[in-house]
């Protein structure tokens, strides 16, 4: 499903007209119609729509789209393929890479000036491994949704409640986090 179709699906679920959604985002309703027929919708529109429609899936599409790892760009939504890549390859590689953080003193170094070029290269490799796992797990979640009909919105809401109960997050922190803004997207690209 492309971004435009997903936008339309989520708008219809909330029973908003194109005009109503457009007014809340700050664009004309006819522009929403054009977006819904495109494969790619501008990130700022998707992020705004995600907030208005209370849709983590829209936000993931908007902010997740630049997180493409070449090897995984063409991964399909076959759960077996995703399981094999994630469980057999990517997660073990990521965990092995993360042990290198201890070797370079990552947990005690607080400033970029404390890292050598070799340390930075290790951190780059680890970031790449983490990104592979994120992409695989994203596809895994989408497959779970399509196969079982579960609501990812409910999963995210339950997760937010769990993190708040543990004292890790507050609603205010989430709204102000880099991932909740379009600034995050432009910094990732």
UniProtKB/TrEMBL annotation:
GO molecular function terms listed in the Swiss-Prot or TrEMBL record: DNA binding
Region described as Disordered: spans on this chain: 170-189
Alphabetized InterPro entries for the sequence: Cro/C1-type_HTH, Lambda_DNA-bd_dom_sf
Domain HTH cro/C1-type as annotated: residue spans: 7-60
Residue spans of biased composition, Polar residues class: 176-189
Protein name: Helix-turn-helix protein
Native source species: Orenia marismortui
